[in-house]
Amino acid sequence: MTSSTEVFCTNDLCNAGWPEVLTHMSPWGWANLGIGFALGLSVLGAGWGIFLTGSSIMGAAVKAPRIRSKNLVSVIFCEATAIYGVIMAIILTNKIQDPPEDIESYEWTTAFFAGYALFCGGLGVGLTNLASGISVGVAGSACALGDAQDASLFVKILIVEIFASALGIFGIIVGIIQSNVADFPQV
After folding, report:
1. Distance between CA atoms of residues 116 and 110, nearest Å
2. CB contact at 8 A, 124 and 132
3. Does the N-terminal or the C-terminal CB of the chain have fewer CB atoms within 10 Å?
4. What Rg do the C-alpha atoms of the chain give, in angstroms?
């Protein structure tokens, strides 16, 4: 009787460790995966923050209709995290060069370094903007609810929201620094 691994593992890759698995993926695949994470997680963070803020604005506006237009600033701060992801995706996309036609004389070590750097930069920006979008949404929700109770709380809580939005800016700065070292070899 044969086991299931004997049936499906007929080549050497089935017995390979993680280093071989990670190096058998194309550097352009890593780079594009980083772009996807930067864009996707940033938009997810913005959407989550807008959901939190928007639902609280609509709920609190029942008690105090005056807060609806004033608290839309919180939604704009959430949307900024998605814009940071788009900016980073454009920067990362411009760093990618076409694969070579002659693969024998290509500098694969440099290409893998560039692919991993773009992946890490995109993942870092995406995760940072996910956290930033959620924290801006929570602060915006508190801002709307506090403003409905006491109008003097709006500016005080808005400052906290600005600090939460700064997380996304820090993430994109680190992502730009990481992407600056990612240079695919010239073909």
Report:
1. 10
2. no
3. N
4. 23
Alpha carbon distance 103, 111 (integer Å): 11
* Structural domains of the chain, ranges and CATH numbers in brackets: 37-95+112-187 (1.20.120.610)
Burial environment of residue 110 by CB neighbours within 10 A (0 to 12, 13 to 18, 19 or more): middle
Amino acid identity, position 93: T
CA geometry: angle 107, 112, 113, nearest 5 deg: 100
Q: What is the pLDDT of residues 69-90, one digit of tens each?
A: 888 899 999 999 999 999 999 9
45 token code pair: 């963070």
- Residue 15 DSSP code: G
How far, in Å, CA of 141 to CA of 96, rounded? Answer: 39
